[in-house]
Amino acid sequence: MSLLSGWRRESHAADGFEFPTYRDGAGPGVIVMHESPGLTPEVVRFGRDLVDEGFTVVMPHFFGSAHRAPRWLEAARVLPRVCIGREFTMVGTGRTTPLAGWLRSLARHVHAEAGGVGVGAVGMCITGGFALAMMVEPAVVAPVVAQPALPVPLGARRAADIGLGGSDLAAVQDRVAAGCPVLGVRYRADWATGTRFQTLTEALGDGFVKVELTGAGHATLTAERHPDAVDAVVAFLRARLLADT
After folding, report:
1. What order do you get walking across the sheet with 56-60 strand by strand?
2. 8-14 and 17-25 as β-strands: parallel, antiparallel, unpaired?
3. Nearest Cα residue to 115 out of 56, 50, 60, 59
4. How many C-beta neighbours within 10 Å does residue 227 have?
5. Which residue from 24, 50, 163, 192 has the highest number of Cβ atoms inside 10 Å of its Cβ?
6. DSSP character for 57?
7. Is residue 182 classed as helix, strand or coil in its secondary structure?
8. Cα Rg for the chain, rounded, in angstroms?
């Protein structure tokens, strides 16, 4: 049986990109962006958790597996595709993801269809910083940054980089100052996140709400799923998207 049985397959095209999306649920929209190696059973499970919490969940499919569990060494097969693709910024600093326009368009589309005060955006690992880029779009009112891993933290500069160009960083800071907080979740000892939580704290102040977990792990919401991380994300989304319902 497909991992995505019961999810409605759609497609969204904007800003020179087109990707399939999978939708289920009712209520305010939440865009869940998968990590490597794809829409794994763990990512789909997290999406299902949010559906059960009363959200319309939309999961774009950027790369890798979707309808089946990933094969052995799937991540190794996906990495070269991600490295050469124009969608992702693997090593450059001070740059917003090339997918920003597509993601913001998707947020507007989901908000228009799902209604409510706005939409949530959950990025993880490779897509962790994408929720920040999406905040330039006013429809995004509940951004979640889970274990952001790009650019690859080789050297102090890349380890500190949060994947935003200067004007986009200023726009995010304005959104936060106007009352839109950002939730960040990671394992404290996770090398892949570099020093990005420190950068975000310095840039956003109290508007960056941190959940830093003890123990070994990386994928806070999926493969090394931690109940405190899942609970924090659900509570944040409910507070931001369901407070008036």
Report:
1. 8-14, 17-25, 56-60, 29-33, 119-124, 140-146, 182-187, 208-213
2. antiparallel
3. 56
4. 8
5. 163
6. E
7. strand
8. 16
pLDDT in tens, 159-208: 999 999 999 999 999 999 999 999 999 999 999 999 999 999 999 999 99
List, for residues 206-217, the tens digit of each pLDDT value. Answer: 999 999 999 889
Q: What is each CA distance from 108 to 19, 45, 100, in whole angstroms?
A: 16, 25, 12
* CB-CB contact of 145 with 234 (8 Å): no
Query: pTM for the full model?
Result: 0.92
Alpha helices in the chain (DSSP H): 41-52, 74-84, 100-114, 130-134, 156-160, 166-177, 196-204, 227-241
The pairing of strands 56-60 and 29-33 is: parallel
Distance CA 17, CA 148 (A): 22
**Closest to 232 measured CA to CA, from 151, 150, 166, 145:** 145
Kindly give, in sequence order, each residue whose CB lies less than 8 Å from that of residue 237, ignoring residues fewer than 6 positions away. Answer: 30, 50, 53, 55, 120, 142, 144
Length of the chain: 245
Contact call for residues 143 and 163 (beta carbons, < 8 A) = no
Query: What domains lie within the chain, and their CATH numbers?
Result: 8-241 (3.40.50.1820)
Residue 74: both structure tokens together: 């799937």
Task: Give burial (CB, 10 Å; 0-12/13-18/19+) of 201.
Answer: middle
* Among 141, 142, 115, 143, CA closest to 28: 115
pLDDT reported for residue 152: 82
CA distances from 120 to 3, 194, 242 (A): 23, 24, 11
